[in-house]
Amino acid sequence: MKLSKDLQIIYSLAILEAILLIIGPGAKYMNEIDTLSYMDAWEYFSNGTIDLLRTPVYPAIIGILKDLCGTPTCYWITVFIQHLVFLFSIGIFHSTISSLVKSERISFWITLFYATFPAYTFNNNWILTQSFALSGCVFLIYSIIRLRKTPTIVNGTLFTSLLLFLLFLRPGYLYLLPVLAVSWSLCFLEKKRKVAAIGIAGVLITTSCALCYMKAFEKQYGLFAFSGIGVRNQFFIAQDAGFLDTNSKLVKGYNETYDKVYPRHHNWAEVDRFFYAKYSLTEINDTVTKAFRQDPVRWAVFCYDRLCRTALEPLTELFQIRYNGQLIHIIGPLVNSVYVFILLYTILLIQWIRIKKRVPWLSSFLYMSLVSNIITTVVGAPKGAYLLPATPFYLLLLGQFLYYLKITPTKNIELK
Fold this sequence. Notes:
2 strands; 416 residues; 18 helices
């Protein structure tokens, strides 16, 4: 397939950046602490058990490569694969935004940002889930558009496979299940019953797989959940917010475990494993949940405060490089830029629905996904940078919004 002139320029710059990242400083930061937790997780999954902290997709990828090639080589192969997958997603992203925006200039600049912004590209050098999550999000959106346009079993299978992949790559994508259930149900109102049936079937299959996995997790660890990471995040959020007393059994128990285990292993995942061996996930989850429920007003104020504090965190926490012994942090825009954008886009969306008397299907799906991601991040994740894998939703809506800024009145705007 012959690439357009715009894509040729974008791919030339993206490939050059990928080469520089592979042979440059990024290669020095592949063996990060979180990486070790994925390597450890493969030992559990390969033995037919479920890991406490990680879901199976990423541990399986690097674990199988490790078994085939050895530890140092598997890291390099993983980095190479992540760069290749990301490069492939660039063309998919450009095709997707071109279907939303009738401006080649805006499509070019938004795609160029996606393809070359270091917050995205540098993640391809880390042995972490962010790279596949970002690219996978683009593939999922494309598969949804494709299924809506051509409702076939093949496209339905592609959509379901990508949804399963993302869910078992990062459980944080659970919010997509209700969002997609609502979105596909709207197709019934549009008389697109076949589209709705295939889409909902994909959501139901994915939900069934998730429930089965959570039931297996409960059988092994006593808590009906996708992994222990969510409980861990809530524990530290409750501790930092003062919902748990510093002299409480759990807080003292974790601190004691950390002091004993971390100096030997230098791995927070090992600290957690020792901690959860002494205090069960159920006990920790019940204690945290009870602390939140005892003072719902304070919890609501706390969530609002987190919403405000998250606004000042970087949307895309980038990378660190050492230059002349100094650690340099390079970050992207702050999360408050997303807040402002959501407010503006909400005004446009409400006004458009009021005038047109219908709901723009694709735009509403992207909008609900972005808002749901922010809510789950603020309530359940310790850092605003966890928004990064969902930024394709933001970029696609941003491109659409920029295009419609020059179109007045609203009745002349055609949202998809």
